[in-house]
Write a structure and sequence with these properties.
alpha+beta, 13-stranded mixed sheet, elongated
Length: 807
């Protein structure tokens, strides 16, 4: 296209292309390799890191590209070089236009194929800056697709050859137009011929790419896109894919506006790369940006598009801890690059899942542009496989169950983390052709439960199987790849003489605890067999021991043998992976059966965890008991209190004196008093305290409410309120007392012997000597005992000279 488009369409596409191209992931491709210098390279153990990718970013730099678009190209390339996860990947950056006169070239290779390790990323960051300076004298304004594809395929295949490429090879071609070689002399003598020859040559270049195993992913934007041409490019290249997911097969994408390009490019690259992108937040410095890395991620990169090298970035993990710019920390490996460039990235191996915080700062004058953060991640899973039976016979149906673990041995238990995953397995062996079968977690037989993240499938071992078997599982989902480790087994004997079944408790334990299991074995052989219990596929750092390690299966018998698996005291909390296997040592260690270790290790309980219920319950019980005792004591005190009780002294039914007990005079439920008979006056009642109380009369109320009187020098007798009781030569009547509770002793008070008729006669015969000088008094004279403050009323007349006798 010659027409000039708005710069944001193409500029945004170029920027996001760089982000997407920084993602890692495996793609299906032949398996040989050579490096850039022709040295043979072998792929590292898949468990060591993400698969590498050789890729080319081919960018349309025709006349429609504005100067601002060139700046976006530079940032896109910087994102690419800094954000790539695999340090074994290689990248090249190619700009293209057309060649219309002498001195011009249709392509401009600003960065040759470069390994994206630490040094290579710095080299890519420097060379890509050339994209910001376009020389119209060296590149024409047209759109030469054939030349662009040819240059990319040549660079991606020159090191290892077309038929044995080291790693998957992908071309991402960004364009805002359609084929335009009408002014390029190399395609013919006139405009129509040139366009026709250009289309034919593009078909040839795509066929070459297909033969070389190079995928083409065209990304178009704008209103002038030739959709049929982009479709032809996607379908004309190599049709391999990174997984069995349909969307991972090359296809073209077109969006209409610049607002849609970001999402389209991210989805395109994710589909091609078997990786995922988590979009983070955007802000101007100073600010805190966030982005989330999921638990299933094993390799990731936090890419910060800061535009201005003056922006400084600090990274914090989900636990709020500042992570180092280089080195290891809490089980993760870190490496920061691009700190002095427009794009910075933190590459993380085995990242801590959760929300990461990226803090950005910048000096005055460098805070006007928005900074964006993204998380680029991939999950490399290990397959934990069991076969039942472990050693199948020819023609026997075999059940295969697979669990997923991360590289650190973390068992995946959340089915949402494996959304969209497809799983299958391939069986190969001597005597039959390899075949593939499906694994599912849908709850349909043979799968036991849907969503338990245990993928299950079955196959029937061919009758021609004669020896060793090899099973390889394959898992595919956006952002997820499997390790493709083979599981080896052996064809079992046609008539098994030894069968075994393992069962291991599914439980929760503390470090140092044991897990119980049972081995049931039937030996139909005429000789005993020695069996060995072994642990397989243990997570790194797990210290487990099984006991007994060796058992004997008696000849011709079925035997049940209990065993235990002990978890070491220092085992970290988490779910135990792996399995227990029983093997026949006399038959080349043939595996008879396996069982998953479905055990969760939790931190040991604290003292409070063990005893809080007992302590709390005891405290509550003591509180309740104390409350009840207090209530009983208070109730007893209240029942025994004599406050308000009236004592009346009588003589022959005539009231002589009365006294009412006031508050505080009956401590402990007792009241001590004496009868004063002053010479010449009537008898009175007086309360006494202190040492005098020991020789006084004592009135007491029990906790049951019963009144008891102990005359001085006499024995204690019960008193019933309102009924007289003898007290020496007088009678005493008590009023205001509570009725005794049922069962209280003394249903009816007995009188003091001294209150009998004989005593009364003796008392009445006593002479009261009147004094000639005595002063008479009127009936009802009131007297007061000042020592106690107790008030009483007398009923005697006149003064008398009496003996002061205390009872």
């Amino acid at each position: 296209m010659r027409e000039k488009m708005h710069w944001t369409n193409k500029g945004s596409a170029l920027l996001l292309a760089g982000v997407l191209l920084a993602l890692p992931g495996p793609l299906t491709a032949p398996a040989a390799a050579t490096g850039a210098a022709g040295v043979t390279r072998t792929a590292a153990d898949p468990a060591e890191g993400p698969d590498p990718l050789d890729f080319a970013v081919v960018v349309d730099q025709s006349a429609s590209l504005a100067e601002k678009d060139l700046a976006r190209e530079t940032e896109a390339a910087a994102l690419l070089s800094q954000g790539e996860i695999s340090e074994r990947s290689r990248a090249t950056i190619i700009g293209f236009g057309s060649s219309e006169k002498a001195g011009q070239s249709p392509v401009r290779e600003v960065c040759p194929l470069t390994v994206a390790d630490a040094a290579g990323r710095e080299r890519l960051s420097a060379c890509v800056q050339q994209l910001g300076r376009r020389d119209a004298a060296r590149m024409g304004p047209g759109t030469d697709f054939p030349a662009a594809v040819r240059q990319a395929v040549t660079r991606l295949t020159e090191a290892g050859g077309a038929k044995t490429p080291a790693v998957p090879k992908v071309v991402f071609l960004l364009t805002d137009g359609k084929l335009d070689v009408a002014d390029s002399p190399e395609y013919g003598t006139d405009r129509d011929t040139r366009q026709s020859n250009g289309a034919r040559r593009l078909t040839e270049e795509l066929a070459r790419a297909r033969a070389a195993g190079v995928q083409i992913w065209p990304l178009g934007f704008g209103s002038e896109i030739d959709r049929s041409a982009l479709t032809a490019m996607a379908e004309g290249g190599y049709r391999g894919a990174c997984s069995d997911i349909p969307d991972s097969v090359p296809r073209m994408r077109v969006v209409g506006t610049s607002a849609e390009i970001d999402k389209a490019l991210q989805e395109t690259f994710a589909a091609a790369r078997c990786a995922r992108i988590a979009q983070g937040t955007v802000g101007k410095p100073p600010a805190d940006l966030t982005v989330t890395i999921p638990p299933i991620a094993t390799d990731g990169s936090l890419t910060v598009a800061k535009h201005d090298p003056k922006v400084r970035v600090t990274y914090y993990d989900p636990a709020g801890r500042k992570v180092p710019v280089r080195g290891e920390f809490d089980g993760s490996t870190f490496e920061v690059s691009g700190q002095d460039g427009p794009v910075e990235a933190l590459r993380v191996k085995d990242p801590l899942p959760g929300r990461w915080r990226v803090h950005i700062e910048a000096p005055e004058g460098h805070r006007d542009r928005e900074v964006a953060v993204r998380a680029i991640w991939q999950g490399r899973l290990r397959s934990d496989v069991t076969l039942d039976p472990a050693s199948p016979r020819a023609g026997e149906k075999v059940t295969v169950q697979v669990r997923m673990q991360t590289r650190r041995g973390v068992v995946i238990t959340d089915p949402r983390q494996l959304a969209g995953l497809t799983a299958s397995a391939e069986v190969a062996g001597a005597g039959f052709r390899p075949f593939t079968f499906r694994l599912a977690d849908d709850g349909r037989a043979p799968d036991a439960k849907a969503g338990d993240v245990r993928f299950t499938g079955t196959f029937t071992l061919p009758a021609g199987a004669t020896g060793d078997l090899e099973l390889v599982t394959r898992m595919a989902a956006p952002g997820i790849t499997s390790d493709r480790r083979p599981v080896h087994a052996r064809r079992g004997a046609d008539v098994p003489v030894l069968t075994a079944g393992l069962v291991v408790d599914r439980t929760t334990v503390h470090p140092g605890d044991t897990v119980r299991g049972t081995l049931d074995v039937t030996n139909d052989d005429s000789t005993p067999h020695t069996l060995r219990l072994a642990l397989q596929d243990q997570a790194p750092g797990a210290e487990l021991t099984v006991a007994p390690a060796s058992v004997t299966a008696a000849a011709g018998k079925s035997t049940r043998i209990p065993f235990t698996v002990t978890v070491a005291g220092g085992t970290a909390p988490g779910e135990l992976g792996g399995q227990v296997a029983v093997v026949d040592t006399g038959d080349g260690d043939t595996v008879l059966d396996t069982a998953f270790l479905d055990v969760l290790v939790v931190a040991p309980p604290t003292w409070w965890d063990r005893w809080w219920k007992a302590v709390t319950g005891g405290a509550v019980a003591l509180l309740v008991l104390a409350t009840l005792v207090g209530i009983r004591i208070l109730a007893g005190i209240r029942r025994r209190d004599l406050t308000g009780t009236t004592l009346e002294l009588r003589d022959d039914g005539r009231s002589l004196y009365s006294l009412t007990i006031r508050r505080g005079q009956s401590e402990g439920g007792t009241f001590a008093f004496t009868v004063d008979e002053p010479y010449g006056g009537p008898p009175t009642l007086r309360s006494v305290r202190g040492t005098a109380a020991s020789t006084a009369h004592m009135l007491r109320r029990t906790s049951s409410g019963e009144l008891l009187l102990r005359p001085r020098g006499g024995r204690q007798v019960p008193v019933r309120a309102g009924e007289p009781i003898g007290l020496g030569e007088h009678e005493l009547v008590v009023r205001g007392g509570r009725a005794p509770s049922p069962g209280a002793r003394g249903a009816r008070p007995s009188r003091d012997p001294r209150a009998s008729g004989a005593s009364r006669t003796s008392r009445l015969s006593r002479l009261s000597r009147r004094t000639s000088s005595g002063t008479g008094s009127s009936p009802g004279t009131t007297g007061t005992t000042g020592s106690t403050g107790t008030t009483g009323t007398t009923g005697a007349t006149g003064g008398s000279d009496t003996y002061d006798v205390n009872f």
